[in-house]
Hints:
It contains 6 helices and 10 strands, in the order βββαβααβαββαβββα. The protein is an alpha/beta fold. The chain has one domain: Rossmann fold (3-Layer(aba) Sandwich).
Amino acid sequence: MAxxxxxxxxxxxxxxxxxxxxxxxxxxxxxxxxxxSHTWAGxxxxxxxxxxxxxxQGYVGFAIDMYGKGVRGSSVEENTAxxxxxxxxxxxxxxxxxxxxxxxxEQAEVDPAKxxxxxxxxxxxxxxxxxxxxxxxxxxxxxxxxxxxxxxTAGNKITARVLCLHGYDDPMVQPQAMLDLATExxxxxxxxxxxxxxxxxxxxxxPEANDPAxxxxxxxxxxRRSWMALEDFLAEIFS
Length: 239
């Protein structure tokens, strides 16, 4: 096994974006691919590590970029300033993640008919919005994502299968939001799952998360269990 990586540039709104592609070059031919949508801080080594982990499982991993090449946040204030313009313009957010999927499908290593997307925190909302647009990706998985409906996708049919991996005690996403999402997904005809982990708050997959003021903390058990759930989900949707 030899994991290879490269950066991939693509554009949206005249903005140059840069994703991180990882694949195993010992495998021949195009293979299923998974886009990874980043947290509010922008694409970092965290998402790139997930792309490599997926490549080690035989997929193509693609850590996408929602902010622009080289744009990162390093504080709560900077992260908020980067995220909010897209949160306030969900159509633009949806178009941008759609461009990332187009760029992923164009890569020679990828089977364009077998693409999925996962996301963390803000990225979880991004992949849910991708599904809400009616995208033909096979499935989306949200890790401790935000659930608020965008307001511009009511009446759309969701064809992507949906997996949400959620900390039940996440102060940013109260239990009622989970119920509202379930109602929304059911109305859209989605094949959906929501896994809620008890005694678990926001950012539970990130070993560096330790911010009680934000309600964010790493949880080793939830991290392990949620990744196993993702592995099962990907095997199912790509079968």
